[in-house]
């Protein structure tokens, strides 16, 4: 999962590098910033093979200087689960409260590190086309990653971001699990470990 997404990120950066001029000029911008991203989300439950979905979401932040930006963001992806027995389709969301630390420079290419406190709300949980549990949310965890801001002007930038996280869902109530190959439905509470990897490309705007 991680290797595949990292390869995709490298390919995107190569493509962007071929069309963006890296000439010297100050592009890092301060103040309020608004963004929107589109990308992919790979999710793995209990170390099962990862499942993927298309991720979208907004972001709002404030840059105190050329280095530090605090932000809040939300995103979601519809994930089809292949090999985890408890459910086979979910809407998997991320809510991040984070900080970005930019490597301030005078060029269009501005790399940054990204650390966020992350919440994972899960909704629309289905098993065999039926709702199998109520919506649930993971315990707060941390996501770690980085990215590259590629400035098109002083007010607009492309934003390529890669982020990894591990989380834990405690006492997830599941009503629609067949036991031992029978059709009997059992009432269970599960503790579920999960991993999430996100690769997104978006835009940032400083009004």
Describe the structure.
With 207 residues, the chain is mainly β. The chain has a single domain, classed as Porin (Beta Barrel). The chain has one helix spanning 2-17, and strands spanning 31-45, 51-63, 68-80, 89-102, 109-119, 121-127, 130-131, 136-137, 141-151, 156-178, 185-205. It has an 8-stranded antiparallel β-barrel. Strand 6 (121-127) and strand 7 form a beta hairpin. It is elongated. The model is unreliable at 1-6, 12-25 and 177-183 (pLDDT under 50).
Short description:
This protein is mainly β and 207 residues long. It has one helix at 2-17, and strands at residues 31-45, 51-63, 68-80, 89-102, 109-119, 121-127, 130-131, 136-137, 141-151, 156-178, 185-205.
User: What is the third-level CATH name, the topology?
Assistant: Porin
The 3D shape can be described as elongated
Helix content: under 10%
Identify the strand order in the major beta sheet.
1-2-3-4-5-9-10-11
Secondary structure layout plus pairing:
Elements (H helix, E strand, L loop, with lengths): L1 H16 L13 E15 L5 E13 L4 E13 L8 E14 L6 E11 L1 E7 L2 E2 L4 E2 L3 E11 L4 E23 L6 E21 L2
Antiparallel strand pairs: 1-2, 1-11, 2-3, 3-4, 4-5, 4-6, 5-9, 6-7, 6-8, 9-10, 10-11
Question: Which descriptors would you attach to this protein?
Answer:
single chain, 207 residues, mainly beta, Porin, 8-stranded antiparallel beta barrel, 8% helix, 64% strand, disordered N terminus
């Amino acid at each position: 999962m991680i290797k595949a997404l990292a390869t995709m990120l490298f390919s995107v950066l190569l493509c962007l590098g071929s069309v963006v001029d890296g000439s010297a000029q100050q592009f890092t911008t301060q103040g309020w910033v608004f963004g929107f991203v589109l990308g992919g989300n790979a999710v793995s439950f209990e170390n099962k093979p990862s499942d993927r979905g298309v991720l979208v979401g907004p972001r709002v932040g404030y840059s105190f200087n050329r280095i530090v930006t605090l932000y809040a963001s939300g995103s979601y992806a519809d994930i089809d689960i292949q090999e985890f027995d408890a459910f086979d389709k979910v809407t998997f969301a991320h809510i991040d409260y984070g900080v970005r630390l930019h490597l301030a420079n005078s060029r269009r290419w501005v790399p940054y590190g990204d650390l966020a406190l992350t919440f994972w709300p899960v909704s629309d949980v289905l098993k065999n086309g039926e709702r199998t549990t109520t919506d649930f949310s993971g315990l707060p965890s941390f996501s770690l990653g980085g990215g590259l801001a590629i400035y098109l002007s002083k007010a607009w930038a492309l934003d390529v971001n890669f982020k990894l996280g591990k989380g834990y869902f405690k006492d997830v109530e599941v009503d629609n699990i067949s036991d031992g190959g029978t059709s009997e439905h059992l009432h269970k509470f599960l503790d579920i470990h999960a991993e999430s990897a996100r690769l997104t490309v978006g835009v940032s705007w400083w009004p």
